[in-house]
Each structure stands twice: as C-alpha cells, then as structure tokens.
Amino acid sequence: MRMLVARGFTLLEALIALAILGVVLSVGMPRMADWIYASKVAAAGQFYAEAFALARNQALTQNGVSRLVFSKNAGNGQYDWQIDLCFPRSDEPCNDISPNWSSAANPATRDPLGAKGFKSLQRSAEALPPAADLVPALGPEGANAVYFTPVGWVDPAIGPRIERIALTPGTKRAAAARPLAVVLTMAGNAIRCNPLAAAGDLQRCPP
C-alpha cells in the first residue's frame, strides 16, 4: 500500500505568497484607514446632532427652557457640550444672565422635582478625532450656546446663538471623507448635511 506524504510549501511558493500578500495589504490598508476615518467623521456629526436633539427634548419634556453650551476640549480641540435647564417666571426670565439654571451638581432653582430634578448633562468630545484631522467650527463666529423654548423652538431673543457646526477634514485627510455640517433650524431640528453639495442635492445644507 502506498503512503501519502504531506507536501509543504517550497521556498519559492512561500516568497510568491508573501509578495501577493504585500500587494493586497498595500492596496487595502489605505482604503481601510480611509473607511475608519470616514466613520469617525460620521460619529462626530452624530455626537453634535445628539447634543441639539437632547437639548430640545429636555425643553419639551420638562416644560422649561434649556440651553446647549459648547466649550473647547483641551485635549483634542473638539467641542464638549453641556445641557442646562431653567424654569422661567414672568418676572424672572431664563436668559444668559439668570442665576437659576441647573448645573452638573444641582437642579434648577425652581425645578418641580426639587433636589431630585434634572442636573445638567455633560458630554466630553475626547473620543473624537483631533482638530488637526477634523476641524470644527461653530457658526456664526462668536456663538457658543443656543436656547430652546418650552415648545422646543430655538429662542431668537438670546444671541449670538449657534446655528451650525461644520466639520472639515484636515489637509492630510481631505480625500478620505467629505465635509460635514450639523445645521439647527428655528424649529429646533438638527440636520446633518454636506456643505459642498450642489444645488438640488438632497444632502445640501439649508441656507
């Protein structure tokens, strides 16, 4: 009876396999890196869109005034955000100088639930790409907060108010992902869009 002998790779076959693997990796790795970066850009858009949505939702559900405040993250240059809540009275409105806003430690002064009421909600942007790779810009210039009325609309009386946040890939990443913006309508809805889209494109940002 003949015995079957297992045949291994020859040196030449192994070298050919390594060469093919090298070609595959050289082509596939940049594309994978671009895909990962594009996913991070989309996640950043979601991070900021969620901020607008949660701030509006707090105003609606709590029947109060909410505000969304952005502050620069010292680590990566992106924007952390915080949602505060306030309950106005006819003689004491909830404006930018009111002392009655909630904080991370305490509910708003007139919160119906007292000590068990809403405490300011904070989110850090530390997980987002650094600003050198994804440049954030709040618009208009000089704005860092937006206020929502109890019916969920943006309060136009307090300004300058944030109308959008633009996220632009850095120079070295420009080919990996398209620019992204999150635009806030007066009705309080956050829309993710492409600021460079042509007229008529459904992805185009509202004016």
TrEMBL record:
NCBIfam families: IV_pilin_GFxxxE. It comes from the Bacteria. This is Tfp pilus assembly protein FimT/FimU. It holds the Pfam family N_methyl. InterPro entries: N_methyl_site, Pilin-like.
